[in-house]
Structures are given as structure tokens and as C-alpha cells.
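tool_call: predict_structure(chain=1)
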Amino acid sequence: MTNVPRGYYFNPAAFVQAIVPAGSAIPSAHDSTALAGEDGTDLGDVGRNALRGPGQQNVDFSIARRFTFTESKALEFRADLFNLFNHANRDNPVSDISRSDFGRVLAFSSSPRIVQFALKLTF
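tool_result:
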């Protein structure tokens, strides 16, 4: 059983927006005497790069065949396939805690399978 709600990449309820009142100690500061300014601060204690996005997977493939007619004339046929297995790569989840969709993946970061053919004549 998982505690991640349907449609989310991680559980947004595991995070709380940090608000340090004015004059209070800042928990993430290396100096224990650091105090929040007169407006307070929103610096929390979650480390850098604590959130990771979904893995990315992409396979590109090319194949070519050269047909020689004479010593100086040849024809080359080439096929290039991008995202060969048509794998849908999700974008990173929303990481702004102040947004209502915090933790959701809203888009895809990959393009669909693309096939391109090329024909080259050398002489």
C-alpha cells in the first residue's frame, strides 16, 4: 500500500510550507545564532535536490545501406528512428509548494516516435 494519492508523483502532505516568524532562529542556517529578519523568512530545512523526478528512457536507432554502382557513383539509403519504442517520458512534478497542484506531473517531456528516411546520391 502506498501513501501517494492518485495522480501525484509523491505525497504532498509530507511537506509543509516553511514560515519562520520574525526574530526566530532559522533552522536551516549553519550558524545557530541566525535569526529571521523583521519580515520573517520562508527558508525551511529540506536539503537541496530532495525531490527527484521520474526516470527518463529513450532509444534512438539508425540503419543505413550503401549501393555502389560504379567506382565514383553510389546511392545511400538511411532510416533514423527517434524514440524507437515510443516510450512516454513524464516531466518533473510541480515543486512549488504554494501551488495547488504541488506534487503532480502535468506534462510529458518526450516527443512521440519519429521516423525519418534519407536518400543520398554521390557522384
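agent: Residues 51-123 form one domain. Proceeding to next step.
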